[in-house]
Every structure is written in C-alpha cells, then in structure tokens.
C-alpha cells in the first residue's frame, strides 16, 4: 500500500489472479488498472472477470492495451471503461515518435479526460508526432500480422532449443493461460520472453552477440529489439522485488520486428552458440 503524489492510496496486486483482485477491491476503490499480457512474462489477466469485480463497486476500469494493440484485443468489448495505449509502440510502429492515447466509449468520461488533458495537465501531442503516428497507422494491420507470425515462429524455435529453459508466449500450447488467450484475444502479439540455462553474464554475452536484434528497451517498431529485464527495463526494482516478480537474471525479452523470419532465426541461432 502506498500513497502517491496526488494523495491516492495505491495497492498493487497480481491481477493475473482474479481472487487476489477480488480480495483487494473494496467499496472505497475508485479505479482498477491492469495490463494484459503482462510485461515481461506475458501472463494474462482475465479482462471480463476483473471487469465484473470493478463494476460491482462502481470503480473505473482501465486497461493498458499497449502490448496486444486493438488488432489483437479490444478491452472495451469486455467491460473496460477506459483503454490506454503508448502509441510510441505498435500504433506508431517505427520507433520515431512518443505519444499516448486514452480511449473510452463513455462520453462523460471522455469529456473529463479531455478536460484534464487539455486544461489541467496540457499534455498534448505536437503536430509532427501526430503526423508520424497517423502515417505509421496506415500499415498497422500489415505490421501486426508480420510481428505475430514472426513471434510465433521464434517462440516455437526457442521452445525446442537445448539452451532455453522456458519460453513465455501466449500462443504456445503450454502457456498456462493459452485457452484464455484464445478466448479474449484475436492473436498472440509480437513479444516473446524466455529463460536461458545460463548465468547473468552468459545471458548478457548472448544478447551482445546478436546482430539483427538491437539491445534496447522499447518495443513495437519494425526492427527487432532484445531486452535483458534484470539489468535494463526492470533494473529499477530491488533484487527481492525482481525475484517476487519472477524476473530472473537469465530472462530475455524479444520485441520481434517485421524482418524476414529467417534472418531472425539465424541471428538467434549464432548467438545461442556462445553458450
Ligand atoms: C512503453 C509502455 C508504456 C509507456 O509508454 P511511453 O510511450 O514510453 O511513455 C506504458 N505501458 C506499456 C505496456 C508500455 O509498453
């Protein structure tokens, strides 16, 4: 439990566990905010089940849909009041503009968000970033299909690799929530994470040996990126927090791009030979 800078009391719960959400939500809860699939372990939250819990206490239900995108998942159809996106990622799709979007099908909520954005906080996107995002959107469905087929192929390849201990991808049959993924998503997205049978230093060496994948934190662009959560995107967590979140030193996250899949497979193959 913590109190944020606006004076709101915030409680973090594992939202992949519907019972944990149910136990945390009370009549005092004003807002329930989830992200699915989660970063970086690609676990799922049950959109409709969490929505029912939020709605029962009249809390506003917000879903960060950045990973799945509207191409693969539409939370408003499953009870969300508000959907948020980092347009920096797949929607713009070219790693050259930063922005965000807040979407709702409730007109009074839309007015309230717009008022806060325009008159209170003033965070509006500049004209050139707006242009880049709209231009990127023209190829959005084409890119998403390619991100997904590439990610699926890489996930299956890694799943069969002797140096790989475990692969996290909702499209794999052995993903613990594969059935939920099939139910609430139209596709499994372009992010894959996996654990190597390796130390932190060996893991880092594999990542540095990659040539087509760039070692960088973002995702959603046409070019493939690789992230080492323990030392990069999740390095702000303490060791204990990281362990509790299931982020080991040998965990790797791929943001699979739209390159030819053979170039990606060949690159992974040569880098993994270092183990
Ligand atoms: C990157 C990201 C954000 C933050 O977006 P920025 O555009 O980088 O500010 C929020 N949520 C998710 C799921 C993200 O991947």
From TrEMBL:
It comes from the Archaea. GO terms for molecular function: cystathionine gamma-lyase activity; cystathionine gamma-synthase activity; pyridoxal phosphate binding. It holds the Pfam family Cys_Met_Meta_PP. Keywords: Pyridoxal phosphate. PANTHER family: CYSTATHIONINE GAMMA-LYASE (PTHR11808:SF15), TRANS-SULFURATION ENZYME FAMILY MEMBER (PTHR11808). Belongs to the trans-sulfuration enzymes family. This is Cystathionine gamma-synthase.
